[in-house]
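Here we describe the complex-level prediction in full. Unlike the single-chain runs in Section 2.1, the two entities below were treated as one system.
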Amino acid sequence: MTIKRMLLASIAIACVTAPVSASAETADKKIALSNNYAGNSWRQAMLTSWDKITKDAVSQGIVAAADPFTTAENQATEQAAQIQNLILQGYDAIVINAASPTALNGAVKEACDAGIVVVSFDGIVTEPCAWRIAVDFKAMGESQIEYLAEKMPDGGNLLEIRGLAGVSVDDEIHAGIQAGVEKHPQFKIAGSVNGDWAQDVAQRAVAGILPSLPEIKAVVTQGGDGYGAAQAFAAADRPIPTIVMGNREDELRWWKEQKDANGYETMSVSIAPGVSTLAFWVAQQILDGQDVKKELVVPFLRIDQDNLEANLETTEAGGVANVEYSLEDAQKVIDAAM
Amino acid sequence: MRLSSSAVRLIIPAASLAVLLAAVFYMQPRAMSYTGLNLLFNLAVPIALATIAQMLIMSVNDLDLSMGAFVSFCACVAATFLQTSPAIGVLIFLGAIAVYAGIGVVIHLRQLPSIVVTLGMSFVWGGLAVLLLPSPGGAAPGWVRWLMTVKPPLVPMAIVASVIIAAVTHYVVMRSSFGVLIRGVGGNNRSVERAGWSVVGIRAAAYALAGLFAVLAGIALVGLTTAADANIALRYTLLSIAGVILGGGEFVGGRVSPIGAVIGALTLTLAGSFLSFMRISPDWQIGAQGAILIVVLALRLFLNRVEKREKNR
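The structure predicted for the assembly as a whole is:
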């Protein structure tokens, strides 16, 4: 009788523990998101994506909790205090979108010393003990020229719309575009303006420089400026060149209209706010005991002629095309860095 | 037995700190440890130093709106010059303290409103900080880092530092004759002048001392963060003012309390942690922080009134 009971009990225990074998390592782990700012559509989309993906993960028992925390004032000292509070609250991993690349290093070090996994993304931290999921903006710039080189082998004049002067992202995308032009000397940058990643600024800047430019074959951009450039070309009554877009909803909509009307072809590239979910899965993988390189590169979201409609459909009016990452995507990113 | 009015002033900030601390311990028992206390309070050390600096300015009836920008500037100097060539770094700090004394002189001689002058200076300090560190970076000098992460036996660094700051400034401001003069200028500037003292000199000295504490705040901050950026401490302007008021200080009349100011800084820091442990959404956090301030101040106003009524009786 007692032996029978013991057997039954052990079978019961085996049945209970068996199904979670795939994620048993992290089922009791808690992950926190420390976010410095929530005041624009990109950040809102980022938080929504986090919410959506992590809720599923928690209900599936992959992790115990995944709570987002946002600081009220977008100040580094405030976020440092927030991170120290998260350490006290006993989280096993902290995913950070940082207010400053350096001013959080002390708090991040405290977290590492307490045995907490720290993964930073978008706004990354320089503290060596943390993981970084950075965007390869240079490759993003270069990919535009690669696309154009394939589309128009004869090359031609380019107009470059740059971002906000003095910001590192602008420098990096610009460097990528220049590297691309060096590799494909059939292209020549005939003019360059600052569009500040905003449609209205880009439109004004392009309208100002257009009269002095020769025939433009293509416009390379940084995102948020493609629609304004198209408006400026249309207003000046000039043939509309191939304008590389930046995943904003108005850009995609305009592209779709042109595509339906006259078969207009281009591509669109930017980073997806859903990168927060990639950081979540990377943190989960590290907690799971996987060997992950400290420097990871986030793939950018590219939209082409054939998947334009699908992306436009899922993008909210006035928003940015988004993609949420899955565990498999994160594993691909991790393997790529190996 | 009746309590003196200065003791009553101290009771409220100390009690609010104790209540908050009890609430935090209740919600997060992990905080009730050596490391826990250090994590809760170590970022309060630079805030406490900045609050003391602000308190010195307020004790001569002025207000420093450049505190945050100046501490940011000092943090940038600490992360660059103080680390690479300490002699130049110290010289820059001495120069900055001299500028603070100069501001005090100008404000006194020209009878300018301190709010306007220091608001203007905040742009100067901000600009200098950006010139020093156009992009975030730098590194904390080794000894500063050591000082801020040292693990004394029994009591964590953050508590030891707060007690030392409170004790030293209490001695300087409340016990030394220099402190009496500073508070005298805030209380009744003319009688100090009639007694044969140079009010310009006293004001300049108060400003210089405030500059010194702000410099220390910048250095302490870099010791905690390991690196600086030009906007690192912008919150400190309002935090320091709130800390002084919370600690029982007044905007006018030279009525200040160094121990109270340190407690005020600790309370403000703890209030942030408390709200974070409560899981209050960030949209409400600023409001909740304000609510805590208002409750504490209302309590003090109430006690003040009780005190006055008893005196009149």
